[in-house]
Amino acid sequence: MTTTPDNWQKSSFSAGGDGNNCLELAAGPTALHLRESDEPDLQLTTTPVALARLLRGIRHGSRERG
Predict the structure, then answer these.
(1) CA 52 to chain centre
(2) N or C: which terminus of the chain has fewer CB atoms within 10 Å of its end residue's CB?
(3) How many other CB atoms are there within 10 angstroms of residue 53's CB atom?
(4) What are the residue boundaries of the structural domains of the chain, listed by start?
(5) Pairing mode, if any, of strands 32-36 and 43-46?
(6) Can you tell me the distance from the alpha carbon of 3 to that of 29, in angstroms, rounded to the nearest whole number?
(7) Is the pLDDT of residue 2 over 60?
(8) With contact defined as beta carbons under 8 Å apart, do 30 and 46 qualify?
(9) CA-to-CA distance for 31 and 34, rounded, in angstroms?
(10) Residue 40 has what pLDDT?
């Protein structure tokens, strides 16, 4: 059974503008949960290591596989 976190935080890039185009993140004991605020029922769950690799790849423009 999957539980929905209750500690969602919005990205600082959301800037409080109109609409719900915000990335939200919630940290659990062993996983990170991501969602877009305009579709809160659709969530991505990953590990901190996998997300760090993804972000590093995005920053460096590479296609890392891990």
Answers:
(1) 11
(2) N
(3) 15
(4) 26-34+44-61
(5) antiparallel
(6) 12
(7) no
(8) no
(9) 10
(10) 86
Residue 1 has pLDDT above 50, yes or no: no
Amino acid code (one letter) for 61: G
Give tens-digit pLDDT for 4-60: 788 888 877 666 655 557 888 999 888 999 998 888 889 999 999 998 998 899 898
Residue whose tokens read 């996998």: 50
- Which DSSP string do the residues of 1-66 spell out, in sequence order? -----S--EE-GGGTT-SS---EEEEE-SS-EEEEETTSTT-EEEE-HHHHHHHHHHHHHT-----
